[in-house]
Amino acid sequence: MQPVLTFTDSGIYCPAGDFYIDPWKPVERAVITHAHADHARLGNQKYLCSKDSVPLLQLRLGQDIAVQGAGWGETVQINGVTISFHPAGHMIGSAQVKVTVGGQSWVASGDYKTENDGLSGEFEPVRCHVFITESTFGLPIYHWRPQAALFGDMENWVKENEAAGKNSILLGYSLGKAQRLMYNLQHTGKRFLVHGAIYNAHETLLKAGWNLPPVELITQETPKEHFKNSIVIAPPSTADSTWMRRFAPYSLGVCSGWMQVRGNARRLNADAGFAISDHADWKGLLGTVKETGAEKVFVTHGFSSVLARYLQENGIPAEEIKTAYGTEEETTV
């Protein structure tokens, strides 16, 4: 029997349907798991994604792209192949793609996390014959504390900064992480001041009907007094930039799963590191593989060799696959 999905130089390919999932080279038909740049690239002729991803794809790739959205669990037929989207919990609109051909179901999970952050949707394990999983944090050392505890630490940090007369700056990826931070810190009553990259994504989501707190775009004219009693949220690329100098004196906090490892915060000249990730930790990855009931697992970007070997040693056929994923800022901070 021919595999439902194959791995090619252009991306994950479905021969029976003649489409690709998250292709990294331009193709005719692209099925997209989510709107991060390493999974949703410009140049494809037709795009298919979850309904919630449509405005984000248009933001990233242009309003004129040919894009179709499907609801959760809704089936779409392409050349007789059945496709459905299921919540991945990674960010708003992120989906796992289930592809069924002749009674065989494969699931390409894209990026996912198993803890519900209150905004990105509840992760849904999908039963399948073959599962394609990421492994960004595929090492036993990566074990996330509950989200409530992490945000409690952030709140205390902000209070300590205020007591010391410092402004609070949190670094998080502009699409996904930034919205998660604001959504879960809005009860503090602080004003959110944001970098332009975050503002654009925020405005797109507000127009799409998402219930997010108001933000203020930081410009050259933003009064310094607005920095007080506020939380500044910026992308990681602004660290150690001239853009940051306007906030002095300030304390810098980096929000990333990589902060689980001691020394990473110091390497980025950060005052605090919060190990909050939009990817599954080691237990989340293993638990998901088990819940899918998959007879075979393909492991993509991250610590793929480690996870694949562990699964093999525990009786689950697994294989490491090289892809072009994992180039988003989450992987660099």
Automatic annotation (TrEMBL):
Domain of life of the source: Bacteria
Membrane-spanning ranges: none
Keywords: Exonuclease, Hydrolase, Ligase, Nuclease
GO MF annotation terms: exonuclease activity; ligase activity
Top EC class, one word: hydrolase
Known EC number: 3.1.-.-
Record-linked NCBIfam families: Xnuc_lig_assoc
Record protein name field: Ligase-associated DNA damage response exonuclease
Lineage: Bacteria, Pseudomonadati, Bacteroidota, Chitinophagia, Chitinophagales
